[in-house]
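If it is no trouble, can you show me the amino acids of a protein and the C-alpha coordinates describing how it folds?
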Amino acid sequence: MSIRTYAPLLGSLVALALAGCQETTTAARPRVDAPGVPVSVQSISGAPDQVTTAFAGLLGEAAAERRMEIVPGDKPARFRVRGYLTAQPTEDGQTSLAFVWDVYDETKKRAQRVQGESLGRRSSGGDPWAGIDQTIVAKAASDSMDAIAGFLTTAPQAEAKPDAKGKAAESKSRTASASGAKRL
Protein backbone atom coordinates (compact mmCIF):
# COMPACT_ATOMS: atom_id res chain seq x y z
CA MET A 1 0.00 0.00 0.00
CA SER A 2 1.15 3.50 -0.69
CA ILE A 3 1.44 6.37 1.78
CA ARG A 4 -1.61 7.94 0.14
CA THR A 5 -3.60 5.03 1.46
CA TYR A 6 -2.25 5.64 4.96
CA ALA A 7 -2.29 9.47 4.96
CA PRO A 8 -5.83 9.79 6.37
CA LEU A 9 -5.04 7.03 8.89
CA LEU A 10 -1.81 8.75 9.93
CA GLY A 11 -3.54 12.07 10.54
CA SER A 12 -6.28 10.37 12.50
CA LEU A 13 -3.85 8.27 14.56
CA VAL A 14 -1.76 11.28 15.45
CA ALA A 15 -4.84 13.38 16.29
CA LEU A 16 -6.34 10.57 18.37
CA ALA A 17 -3.12 9.97 20.24
CA LEU A 18 -2.90 13.67 20.97
CA ALA A 19 -6.45 13.77 22.34
CA GLY A 20 -5.55 11.07 24.91
CA CYS A 21 16.26 25.99 6.69
CA GLN A 22 18.59 24.42 9.13
CA GLU A 23 19.56 20.82 9.62
CA THR A 24 19.62 19.31 13.06
CA THR A 25 20.42 15.86 14.35
CA THR A 26 19.02 14.32 17.48
CA ALA A 27 21.86 13.53 19.84
CA ALA A 28 20.48 12.83 23.31
CA ARG A 29 18.42 15.99 23.44
CA PRO A 30 16.17 16.62 26.40
CA ARG A 31 12.41 16.42 26.03
CA VAL A 32 10.91 19.75 25.00
CA ASP A 33 7.27 20.82 25.33
CA ALA A 34 5.79 22.89 22.49
CA PRO A 35 2.18 23.76 23.32
CA GLY A 36 -0.06 25.78 21.04
CA VAL A 37 1.69 25.53 17.67
CA PRO A 38 -0.61 23.67 15.25
CA VAL A 39 1.30 21.04 13.26
CA SER A 40 0.01 18.62 10.64
CA VAL A 41 1.79 15.34 9.93
CA GLN A 42 1.44 15.06 6.16
CA SER A 43 3.26 11.83 5.43
CA ILE A 44 5.54 9.11 6.74
CA SER A 45 7.16 7.02 4.05
CA GLY A 46 9.90 4.49 3.49
CA ALA A 47 8.92 1.82 6.03
CA PRO A 48 6.78 -1.31 5.73
CA ASP A 49 3.10 -0.79 6.53
CA GLN A 50 3.21 -2.30 10.04
CA VAL A 51 6.21 -0.13 11.03
CA THR A 52 4.56 3.00 9.59
CA THR A 53 1.34 2.34 11.49
CA ALA A 54 3.17 1.67 14.77
CA PHE A 55 5.40 4.71 14.27
CA ALA A 56 2.40 6.99 13.56
CA GLY A 57 0.69 5.93 16.79
CA LEU A 58 3.87 6.34 18.85
CA LEU A 59 4.55 9.69 17.19
CA GLY A 60 1.11 10.87 18.31
CA GLU A 61 1.79 9.70 21.86
CA ALA A 62 5.14 11.50 21.88
CA ALA A 63 3.45 14.67 20.60
CA ALA A 64 0.81 14.48 23.33
CA GLU A 65 3.50 14.09 26.00
CA ARG A 66 5.07 17.31 24.70
CA ARG A 67 1.71 19.12 24.64
CA MET A 68 2.03 19.63 20.89
CA GLU A 69 -1.09 20.46 18.89
CA ILE A 70 -1.29 17.93 16.06
CA VAL A 71 -4.13 18.66 13.66
CA PRO A 72 -5.58 16.63 10.78
CA GLY A 73 -4.31 17.50 7.30
CA ASP A 74 -7.48 19.37 6.34
CA LYS A 75 -7.31 21.76 9.34
CA PRO A 76 -5.24 24.96 9.62
CA ALA A 77 -1.68 24.33 10.76
CA ARG A 78 1.29 26.63 11.21
CA PHE A 79 3.70 23.89 10.14
CA ARG A 80 3.46 20.70 8.11
CA VAL A 81 5.86 17.83 8.54
CA ARG A 82 6.81 15.06 6.17
CA GLY A 83 8.92 12.19 7.36
CA TYR A 84 10.94 9.35 5.94
CA LEU A 85 12.10 6.21 7.73
CA THR A 86 14.78 3.78 6.63
CA ALA A 87 16.43 0.73 8.15
CA GLN A 88 19.93 -0.38 7.30
CA PRO A 89 22.63 -2.55 8.82
CA THR A 90 25.45 -0.81 10.66
CA GLU A 91 29.13 -1.69 10.42
CA ASP A 92 29.01 -3.44 13.79
CA GLY A 93 26.10 -5.65 12.73
CA GLN A 94 23.24 -3.82 14.41
CA THR A 95 20.33 -2.26 12.55
CA SER A 96 19.81 1.50 12.33
CA LEU A 97 16.33 3.02 12.10
CA ALA A 98 17.01 6.46 10.64
CA PHE A 99 14.44 9.24 10.33
CA VAL A 100 14.35 12.52 8.46
CA TRP A 101 11.64 15.14 8.95
CA ASP A 102 11.17 18.16 6.76
CA VAL A 103 9.17 20.89 8.50
CA TYR A 104 7.40 23.28 6.13
CA ASP A 105 5.95 26.66 7.04
CA GLU A 106 2.64 28.17 5.87
CA THR A 107 4.22 29.31 2.60
CA LYS A 108 5.31 25.70 1.86
CA LYS A 109 8.95 26.63 2.35
CA ARG A 110 11.10 24.17 4.26
CA ALA A 111 11.76 25.79 7.61
CA GLN A 112 13.73 22.97 9.22
CA ARG A 113 15.10 19.49 8.65
CA VAL A 114 15.57 17.19 11.60
CA GLN A 115 17.16 13.80 11.44
CA GLY A 116 18.48 11.08 13.68
CA GLU A 117 18.61 7.37 14.25
CA SER A 118 17.90 4.64 16.76
CA LEU A 119 19.91 1.44 16.89
CA GLY A 120 18.16 -1.92 16.88
CA ARG A 121 19.19 -5.50 17.40
CA ARG A 122 21.18 -7.47 14.92
CA SER A 123 19.07 -8.57 12.01
CA SER A 124 19.36 -12.07 10.65
CA GLY A 125 18.93 -12.44 6.95
CA GLY A 126 18.82 -9.71 4.37
CA ASP A 127 15.85 -7.67 5.69
CA PRO A 128 17.06 -4.84 7.95
CA TRP A 129 13.45 -4.17 9.03
CA ALA A 130 13.52 -7.51 10.86
CA GLY A 131 15.93 -5.89 13.36
CA ILE A 132 13.50 -3.07 14.19
CA ASP A 133 11.29 -3.72 17.19
CA GLN A 134 8.69 -1.63 19.06
CA THR A 135 11.31 -0.22 21.46
CA ILE A 136 13.40 1.17 18.60
CA VAL A 137 10.34 2.56 16.84
CA ALA A 138 9.22 4.26 20.10
CA LYS A 139 12.68 5.79 20.60
CA ALA A 140 12.72 7.12 17.03
CA ALA A 141 9.23 8.61 17.48
CA SER A 142 10.23 10.24 20.78
CA ASP A 143 13.48 11.60 19.33
CA SER A 144 11.56 12.90 16.31
CA MET A 145 9.11 14.83 18.47
CA ASP A 146 11.92 16.18 20.67
CA ALA A 147 13.63 17.58 17.58
CA ILE A 148 10.44 18.98 16.06
CA ALA A 149 9.30 20.48 19.39
CA GLY A 150 12.74 22.04 19.86
CA PHE A 151 12.34 23.76 16.52
CA LEU A 152 8.77 24.86 17.27
CA THR A 153 9.80 26.57 20.51
CA THR A 154 12.38 28.66 18.65
CA ALA A 155 10.50 29.25 15.38
CA PRO A 156 9.67 32.90 14.78
CA GLN A 157 5.99 33.81 14.97
CA ALA A 158 4.26 34.70 11.71
CA GLU A 159 3.74 38.43 11.49
CA ALA A 160 0.31 39.88 10.86
CA LYS A 161 0.16 41.73 7.55
CA PRO A 162 -1.48 45.16 7.39
CA ASP A 163 -4.71 45.39 5.43
CA ALA A 164 -5.67 48.25 3.10
CA LYS A 165 -6.57 50.46 6.09
CA GLY A 166 -3.21 49.90 7.75
CA LYS A 167 -4.61 47.62 10.45
CA ALA A 168 -3.01 44.30 11.19
CA ALA A 169 -4.99 41.49 9.63
CA GLU A 170 -4.77 37.98 10.94
CA SER A 171 -2.82 35.67 8.72
CA LYS A 172 -4.61 32.47 7.79
CA SER A 173 -2.78 29.22 7.54
CA ARG A 174 -3.33 26.69 4.81
CA THR A 175 -2.55 23.03 4.85
CA ALA A 176 -2.12 20.47 2.18
CA SER A 177 -4.65 17.71 2.19
CA ALA A 178 -3.49 14.62 4.03
CA SER A 179 -4.88 12.54 1.21
CA GLY A 180 -2.23 13.90 -1.11
CA ALA A 181 -4.60 16.01 -3.24
CA LYS A 182 -2.26 18.93 -2.78
CA ARG A 183 1.47 18.37 -2.69
CA LEU A 184 4.13 20.58 -1.18
Remarks:
- Residues 134-154 form the longest helix (21 residues).
